[in-house]
Amino acid sequence: MTAPDPKGPPAAARTDEQVEQSLYAKREKIYPREVHGLFARLRTLGVVGLLGIYYLTPWLRWDGHQAILLDLPERKFHIFALILWPQDFIYLAFLLIIAGLTLFFVTALAGRVWCGYACPQTVWTEAFLWIERKVEGDRMKQQKLDAMPMNARKFRIKATKQILWILFAGWTGFTFVGYFTPIIDLGQRLLAFNLGSWETFWVIFYGFATYGNAGFMREQVCKYMCPYARFQSAMFDRDTLIVSYLPGRGEPRGSRKRSAEYKALGLGDCIDCTMCVQVCPTGIDIREGLQYECIACSACIDACDDVMDKMAYPRGLITYTTENAMHGTRTHILRPRVVVYALLLLTIMSIFAYSLSQRTTLGLDVIRDRNRLYRESDEGRIENVYILKILNMDDKGHAYSLHVEGIEDLELFTDTKRIWVDAGEVLELPVRLRVEEDELKERSSKVTFELVATDDPDLAVREEARFLGP
C-alpha cells in the first residue's frame, strides 16, 4: 500500500459511495471507551453544569412564585422578575433569531463545539453512558457481557441498568413538565397519583424520548436525524477550527516498541493503536479525515495525547486546528462571514435589550368607530366614538385614569366612572369625544389618549388617534 504524501493534504474524506453504503449498513453497537484528559474534564463540567441547571431551576423561588414558570393555562410566563404575556411573543422571536445566529457564529469560528459539549443529545447520552459504565463496567466488560448467552447474572445486570435508565428518564420528563406546571404542586399530585391526562402524557412522552434517544439511538441521532450535521458545511471554511489528525506527522502508521527508532523504520508517530476510534462516541476513525459524523467532542485528542505521553512523543498528533494551518497557510480569525455574523448578532441583541428595557406592562389600542365618520350631538357639538382596548400585563390589577388632549376644550365621556383592569385582562372601553365645531381647524385632527395607573404614576401609556369633523 502506498503511503500518503507527508507534505500533501490530510486524508481524504470518505467517498459518496462509502457514505451511501454506511446509510444502509446494519447498525453495530458502539462501546465508547472512557477517556481522561483536559477535554474530557471540560465535557464533564459542561454535562454536570447543564444538567444541574435543567433539574434545579424549576425548584427556585422568586417573589413568591416559581422562578421560571411557563404557565400556559394562565397565559403568563414568569422568568424571575420578568412576566411575559402572549402579546410579548416578539421577544421569543428575538431569542430564536439570536440563538440561531449565535450557533452560526460559533460554528464558523470553532466548528461543532456545540455538538461536542452542550447539545442536549450529547449531554444526556453522556449521563446514560455513565450509568451504563457504573452498572456493566468498562468497554471490555460490556462487550463480554453482550456476547455471553442470557443467564441470571446477565439478566440482573441488564435489568438494573434499564431500571436506572427508566427512573432517570422519568425524572427528566417530570422536570420538563415542571417548567409548565408548578413543580411542587406537580410533585404532590404525582405522589397522590392524581396527575392530569396531559401532564401524564408529557411526562411519559418526554421521558420516553430521553430514554430512546440517549439510551438506544445515541450516535444515530447525530448521524442520521440531526439537521445540523447536514448544513454545517455551509458555515465551514478553511479557517474553521476542526478536530483533525495530522497525516504528515502520523503516516505511515504502524506498531513498534517504545524504544524503537521508528523514523529509521520509515514510520510516522501513529502507532495504529486505534484508541482514537475506541473512544469516539460516533464510531468514526478521525484518521480518515473530516467527516460529518464528527461532533468535535475531542475524546480522540485526549486518548491520542495519552498514548503520545506513554511513547514519549510530542502531543498534538490529533488536535484542534484548521485546514489552512495544516497546509502551512496563515489562519484568519476575522474574515467576512465571521464579521457579518458578529455584526448581525450584536445588532439584534442590542435591539432586543433596548426593546426589553423600554417594555411597559400596560398596553393601549385605540380603535375608531368606522360606521360613521362623525356625528352631531343635540347641542350641535361634533362627536367621535372610539373603542379603547386596555391590556394589563402586570401581575396585579390596577385602576386607571384616562385623559385626552390635542384639541381645545375637548371633552371625554365614558360609560364607567372607574376604570379597573385585572392582571392579564383585556378591557374594551367605549369612549366618546366631543368638541365645538369652531374649535376644529381641519377635517382630521390629531388627539392623544393618555392612560395612567392611579397607584403608580410611572405606569402610563400614550396612544395617538384622529378626530374627524365636517
What can you tell me about this protein's structure?
By secondary structure, the protein is of the alpha+beta class. The chain folds into 2 domains: 1-359, no CATH class; 362-468, Immunoglobulin-like, CATH 2.60.40. The chain contains 16 helices and 16 strands. The strands form 5 sheets. Strands 8, 9, 10, 12 and 14 form a 5-stranded antiparallel sheet that branches. Mean pLDDT is 90; it is low at 1-13.
Radius of gyration: 32 Å
Q: CA-to-CA gap between the ends? A: 96 Å
Global morphology: elongated
Share of helix among residues?
40-55%
Residue-averaged pLDDT, rounded? 90
How many H/I helical runs? 16
Task: Tell me the fraction of residues in β-strands, as a range.
Answer: 15-25%
| Main beta-sheet annotation | 5 strands, antiparallel
Structural class per helix/strand content?
alpha+beta
Taken together, the total number of domains comes to 2
Unreliable stretches, pLDDT < 50, 5 or more residues?
1-13
How many DSSP E strands? 16
